[in-house]
Structures are given as structure tokens and as C-alpha cells.
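Project outcomes to date are best conveyed with an example. Our students and postdoctoral researchers have been running inverse folding experiments weekly, and each run begins with a structure described purely in C-alpha cells. The record below, which covers 452 residues, was selected by the lab manager from last quarter's runs and is presented without edits.
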């Protein structure tokens, strides 16, 4: 089975339902979130070893940078002339990051575990795809190893991330089959987001997702908190190769930058992407490579690999334009994207295909309003109100549509059913007598009319 067909439903993202082109990505109440899972990876030994049983070719670390076609094709190397991510923190909420990998040493800060199963520093691989977080982190901030590269950041060998000088904050979760002692995913996700915000993350990378548009109400306050603190959350749209024909949460949450995928020809990827009106931008999602725990490397595909490219781009923008909010960083990314597919925003490419150099360097007018929406506004309009009605809930005359009840209701007094009091037979007989009397009177009247 190849990497595309193994690609699992992303969450963590969280739910089940179908979102096809043209249908809204805003979840309906009552839709139940599903258990999230990361995208797959295909382990490859370094140096060269026999090809894995699934037929994927081995990848050697010394020439792996030549396989990172997006560094040139998407303007990453050009953007390095202006920024490399120095001083910016990217929180990777995933299955744990191997901070000892030769391409990540010194770039992975003290993290945390929100599953209750992993190491306290977030650097232990967990769940069904323990390598997933390391793959993701390497594409966001890998710096390679060996000799310094001439004329650019990072080293000559190994993986180079989009923001090679950024710091990774690993937040490990358990995604996959339930295990004793593991927290529910609906606890893990909000805990992870809040921890990342509180520990200085400028960007939150969520290469996780689900097969439903809805998310649990328990997530609301955490994502609203990130929005309030101007932290941009970037999430994966999911992959058809794993059976997802829609964008799933958390990529459906307003304000989150949802990322779709394209192939080498910049066409919407069939297996390694999804669709939905919440997609904000698209980037490469096929023929990807990344770092594996234990100084290995892997081939993989899916929007899980695209998200760290966008998160790395956000880190470059943050270094170059430190005054920008998370919403304004998202605006630079979507406004400089190259339109593709139908004219304007569409459910396959969002606002267009990622251009890293333009997002970092071009003159872009930004506003305070996030083109991706606001989760705080969504919560105010869609979640049930438990408090007393606000002024916005009243009519133009200042009078509410309903009266505010202040008198305490009197509880009903419990009584025995009729058949327990002995009254039931009496009631039945009396009712029967009334019916018979009525029929008798009607019959007499009818006979008299006939006789006349």
C-alpha cells in the first residue's frame, strides 16, 4: 500500500460528514466529531538501504535537498534573502518531534505532552504514526546538517525547512486507537492550542484533521484564545486518498488558514488533497520528503506535508514584518497566492497557489479583518447562549421578542395513574354510557323523521 492510500483522516483535528464543492464548511449543530489521525509516512533508511516493501525508493540524506523541489519552484530560496524565521516560534501540535535528529538539533525547544502518555518535553513519538511530527517539523524548520551552505541558510545535507532558523515548540498528542491513560482528543486539542499560545508561539502548525466539518464545543475557547492573542493557526484540508472528500475540522474553524494540495504540475491533487470552501491556499502535497526519527528520511504525500510549508512561510513573514497580527499574516499569504482553477476563490485552491517570496516581500495592503473569518464571531452567532440575552438579542424598539421570566416555576405534584387509584373502570363505564345514550337518541330521531 503506497503513502497516498495509507493517508489517514486528519483531525485532530475531528468529525464525520460530507462537504462537497459549493457546500458550506461551517459545521451544523449535532454533528459529532471523529477521532483525528495524522497523515502517513514511508520510512527510508539513510544511507541507502533496500527499498521498503511498499516499493518506495530509498532517500539518501546527502542529496535529499535536490528532491525538495518547492524550495525553488515556490520561491523559498528567494524569500531567504529577506528572512529565515529567526526569532519566530512555530508550535507543532502533532505526534511528537525528535529533537535529536541531525536536521533539527538546536531548533526544537522545550515542549509539552497533552496526551498523558508521552514525555514531558513533547519529543517522544506517539500513536499510530509516531514519526509524523518529526516529518512535519523538518519541513517547517529543518536546518540540514554537515557543512554550511554557501549563499543561504542551513547546511548542505539533509532537510531544509522553509524557515530554517525558526524554533519548533513540540506539543505531542496521541492520535489513533484509544489507549489506557490517554486523554480524550477533545481534551488534547484545546490543551495543546492554549499551551502553544501561552508559551509564545507565533504560528501553530496542525497537520492533523478529521472527516467532518464540525468540532466539539470544547475547542471553541482555545481557538478563540489563539485568535485573541494574534496567533495564526494553519491546518490541513485532508486527503481523498484516505477517503476524505471534504475539508475536516480543525481546518473548518473560522480564522484558521486551511491548506489544500497540488501536484507537480500545480493541479489540484486528487489523492493528496481535499476540497471545501474553507480552503485558503494550496501548495505542494505530492512527492514530498521529510526527516524521520533516528536521523532517517522518508517519502510521503498529503496536505500534512503542505501545512508546514505554509507555517514556515508565516514564520518568514513574522520575522520580516513583526508588527503584523496573525490575521494580517494570513492576508499576505492569500493575497499573494496565484489564482488557479475557477476565477477567484474556489473549493480546490482557495485564494490560489502559495508564493513564498511574494508573501514575504511584496507590498500588500492588510486590514484588521481576517479574510478567513473569526471564530469568536462564529461562537457568538452559533453556539447556544447560556447567559441572559444581550442588547443584540433585542428588537429595534428595544423590546425583546420574548418576556424575561423571573418567577420560579411551581413543580407539579406527582399523582398515581388512574388504574392505580381504582378510578379507571368508573371513567370507562361512564364514557361508554354517554356514547350509548347519544347513539340511542340519534336513532329515535332518525326513526321519527322516516315515519313522517
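After processing, the design step wrote out the following sequence:
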Amino acid at each position: 500500500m503506497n503513502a497516498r492510500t495509507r493517508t489517514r483522516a486528519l483531525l485532530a483535528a475531528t468529525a464525520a460528514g460530507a462537504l462537497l464543492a459549493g457546500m458550506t464548511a461551517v459545521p451544523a449543530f449535532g454533528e459529532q466529531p471523529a477521532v483525528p489521525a495524522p497523515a502517513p509516512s514511508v520510512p527510508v533508511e539513510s544511507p541507502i538501504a533496500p527499498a521498503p516493501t511498499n516499493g518506495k525508493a530509498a532517500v539518501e540524506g546527502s542529496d535529499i535537498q535536490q528532491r525538495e523541489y518547492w524550495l525553488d519552484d515556490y520561491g523559498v530560496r528567494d524569500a531567504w534573502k529577506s528572512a529565515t524565521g529567526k526569532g519566530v516560534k512555530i508550535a507543532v501540535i502533532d505526534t511528537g518531534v525528535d529533537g535529536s535528529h541531525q536536521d533539527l538539533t538546536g531548533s526544537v525547544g522545550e515542549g509539552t505532552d497533552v496526551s498523558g502518555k508521552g514525555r514531558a518535553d513533547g519529543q517522544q513519538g506517539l500513536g499510530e504514526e509516531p514519526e509524523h511530527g518529526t516529518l512535519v517539523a523538518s519541513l517547517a524548520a529543518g536546518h540540514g546538517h554537515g557543512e554550511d551552505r554557501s549563499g543561504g541558510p542551513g547546511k548542505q545535507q539533509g532537510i531544509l525547512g522553509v524557515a530554517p532558523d525558526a524554533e519548533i515548540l513540540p506539543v505531542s498528542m496521541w492520535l489513533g486507537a484509544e489507549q489506557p491513560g490517554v486523554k480524550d482528543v477533545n481534551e488534547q486539542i484545546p490543551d495543546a492550542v492554549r499551551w502553544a499560545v501561552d508559551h509564545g508561539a507565533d504560528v501553530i502548525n496542525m497537520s492533523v484533521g478529521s472527516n467532518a466539518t464540525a468540532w466539539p464545543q470544547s475547542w471553541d475557547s482555545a481557538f478563540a484564545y489563539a485568535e485573541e492573542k494574534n496567533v495564526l493557526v494553519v491546518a490541513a484540508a485532508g486527503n481523498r486518498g484516505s477517503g476524505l472528500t471534504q475539508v475536516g475540522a480543525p481546518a473548518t474553524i473560522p480564522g484558521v488558514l486551511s491548506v489544500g494540495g497540488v501536484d507537480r504540475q500545480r493541479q489540484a491533487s486528487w489523492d493528496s488533497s481535499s476540497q471545501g470552501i474553507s480552503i485558503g491556499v494550496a501548495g505542494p502535497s505530492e512527492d514530498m520528503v521529510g526527516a524521520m526519527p533516528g536521523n532517517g528520511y522518508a517519502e510521503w504525500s498529503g496536505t500534512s506535508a503542505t501545512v508546514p510549508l505554509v507555517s514556515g512561510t508565516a514564520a518568514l513573514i513574522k520575522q520580516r514584518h513583526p508588527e503584523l497580527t496573525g490575521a494580517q499574516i494570513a492576508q499576505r499569504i492569500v493575497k499573494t497566492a496565484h489564482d488557479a482553477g475557477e476565477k477567484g476563490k474556489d473549493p480546490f485552491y482557495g485564494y490560489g497557489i502559495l508564493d513564498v517570496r511574494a508573501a514575504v516581500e511584496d507590498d500588500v495592503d492588510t486590514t484588521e479583518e481576517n479574510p478567513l473569518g473569526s471564530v469568536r464571531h462564529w461562537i457568538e452567532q452559533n453556539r447556544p447562549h447560556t447567559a441572559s440575552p444581550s442588547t443584540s438579542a433585542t428588537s429595534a424598539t428595544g423590546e425583546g421578542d420574548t418576556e424575561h421570566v423571573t418567577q420560579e416555576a411551581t413543580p407539579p405534584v406527582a399523582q398515581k395513574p388512574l388504574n392505580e387509584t381504582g378510578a379507571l373502570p368508573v371513567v370507562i363505564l361512564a364514557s361508554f354510557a354517554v356514547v350509548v345514550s347519544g347513539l340511542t337518541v340519534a336513532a329515535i330521531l332518525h326513526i321519527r323523521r322516516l315515519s313522517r
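Residues 418-451 form one domain. DSSP finds twelve helices and 14 strands in the chain. The training component of this project remains on track.
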